[in-house]
Each structure stands twice: as C-alpha cells, then as structure tokens.
Task: inverse folding
C-alpha cells in the first residue's frame, strides 16, 4: 500500500516541479526579451552638445542613440551638424514625440525613431553610437559593440564607462542640472573608438631607400593596446610606441641608432596602407596580414 502511494506521488511531484520550471523558463525568457536598460532621464542640452562635440560629428556621420528618449541626441546631430541616423526607444509616447519633432524640424528625411529593443537593434550602420543607460546595461552591451560596430566607430557614453574598454577621451565636469537627475553635479562623458583587428603576422613592402631588407612584424592585441616584435632582414627589433586608434596605426622600429623607421597607416581589413619615414625621407608603405 505504502509503495503504491509513493509510485503515484513521485510522478505527480516531478510533474509539478517540471511545471514550475517551465513557468520559470517562460518568465526568464520574457524578461530576457526586453530588458529595461534605464528609466527615461534626458541628457541635459549642454551635455548633448558636449557629447556630439567630443564625437567630432559631421554631415557624413550616421548616429544611433540606444534608448533615445525624446530624440534630442539624434535630432541635434541632424539639425546642428547635418548628420543622419536613428534612435531606438521602448516607450511608445517618446518614439511618437521624437518622430513628430523630426517632422516639425524638417529632419524626417534624415532621422527616424523606432519602437525597438536596443539589445536587438542592428547597430552596424553607426559611425557614432551614443548611450545614456544604466551602468550594468552599458556593460551588457560591451560584446555587441565589439562584434557589430565597424572599426573607427566612435562610442559616446554619458556618465557610465565600458568596463573592459579604454576610453580615448574622458570629460569630467560638474553640472548643476545633474542634481535633479543623479543627486550630484558630477558629469562624465566617455569617448571610445572601436579598434581595427590587427593581431597576427604582417608582411610589409617598403621602398629600398628606407629599408633594404624586407620588414615583417607580429602584433598582439588587447582592444586598442598593441605590441610585438618586428624582423628587419634577419634582425629582430622591438616595436616601439605602438598606437592604434580605430583604423589608424603607428609605431617605430629602432633599426639604426638615431634613424628609426616611423610607420603610420590606415588598417583596411587584412591590409595596411600608409607611409614610413626615416631620416626625414618619407615613402609609401603597405602591409598584408599573412596569418
Ligand atoms: C536615460 S534615458 C536617455 C535618453 C536619451 N538617450 C538622452 O540621453 O537624452 C534612457 C532611455 O532608454 C530607454 N530604454 C530602456 N530600455 C530600453 C530598451 N531595452 N530598448 C530601447 N530603449 C530602452 C528608456 O525608455 C529611456 O528613455
């Protein structure tokens, strides 16, 4: 009798647990579908101006604002700098308000606002990406920014930094307007530039008057931090003062005392085009990624 009861109870109990688990999974999936990345708190007008200035925005830029609120960042970028772009926002009324403002300002042919989850937005078209979101959500976006944005894209974040990125510029100042927003006057604007991928072995072509022997170099990379060694002829030399900002790369090879080779170039996928300077002589330089 006892055995009979436990046979019936165990499957019933297991079924119950399964139901709870399924319900929990559905709930988790629903939450995951749309994470609220932050409440609606508009960036003060002066901060918007600073963000766009730090981005060095121009008419050829395409701006995407993640969580666009009343649309002020994209609208200002279009109105003042002639840029185009879009904003995504989860609140219906704000999307409507922004599109109405775009129409009223005569900007609707260049900017639009979509009711869309920022985590599911295709951001690959951006040349400038802006955000004013909660600190943890800024960091949840880190991987998306790394994989979807093209090298050279500028990222501007109001107040919160990206933990594993190194800013190219940080503006830190006090603003009275921020007291009603965050309770303090502290205001931060971070500028990041998506680095090109340069890790690997490169083979260079340089003019014979600059280096008679072939130049190859191997780069290691952690975001925009790069380093490595070069081989000039049979000799190994360290890469000095390496810099990578977006697609712009530069470094120095101390091949001869007082006559180093100074390389600067633009990374284009698996190739680099630029110039090399030695002893005041400047000539073209190209490199190709071999591994
Ligand atoms: C702090 S406000 C910033 C508004 C505007 N970018 C600015 O700087 O003035 C953040 C905005 O993100 C929106 N938001 C929050 N989660 C979102 C999500 N998952 N997808 C799209 N928008 C979201 C909020 O509704 C809010 O309007």
Result:
């Amino acid at each position: 009798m006892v055995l009979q009861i436990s046979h019936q109870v165990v499957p019933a109990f297991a079924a119950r647990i399964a139901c709870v688990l399924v319900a929990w999974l559905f709930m988790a999936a629903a939450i995951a579908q749309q994470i609220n990345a932050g409440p609606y708190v508009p960036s003060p007008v002066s901060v918007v101006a600073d963000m766009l200035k730090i981005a060095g925005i121009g008419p050829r830029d395409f701006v995407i604002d993640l969580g666009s609120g009343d649309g002020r960042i994209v609208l200002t970028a279009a109105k003042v700098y002639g840029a185009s772009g879009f904003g995504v926002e989860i609140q219906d009324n704000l999307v409507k308000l922004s599109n109405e403002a775009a129409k009223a300002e005569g900007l609707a042919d260049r900017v639009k606002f979509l009711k869309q989850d920022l985590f599911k937005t295709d951001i690959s078209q951006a040349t400038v990406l802006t955000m004013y979101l909660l600190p943890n959500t800024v960091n949840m976006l880190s991987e998306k920014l790394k994989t979807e944005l093209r090298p050279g894209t500028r990222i501007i974040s109001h107040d919160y930094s990206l933990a594993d990125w190194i800013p190219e510029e940080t503006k830190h100042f006090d603003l009275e307007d921020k007291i009603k927003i965050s309770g303090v006057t502290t205001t931060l604007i971070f500028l990041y530039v998506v680095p090109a991928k340069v890790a690997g072995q490169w083979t260079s072509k340089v003019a014979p008057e600059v280096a008679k022997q072939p130049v190859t170099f191997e780069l290691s990379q952690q975001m925009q931090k790069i380093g490595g060694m070069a081989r000039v002829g049979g000799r190994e030399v360290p890469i000095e003062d390496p810099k990578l900002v977006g697609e712009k790369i530069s470094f120095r090879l101390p091949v001869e005392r007082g006559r180093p080779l100074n390389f600067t170039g633009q990374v284009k996928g698996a190739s680099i085009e630029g110039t090399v300077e030695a002893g005041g002589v400047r000539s073209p330089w190209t490199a190709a990624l071999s591994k």
Summary: The pocket of S-adenosylmethionine is lined by residues 34-38, 40-43, 65, 67-69, 72-73, 88-91, 94, 117-119, 132-133, 158 (CB under 6 Å). Residues 174 and 186 are 5 Å apart (CA to CA).
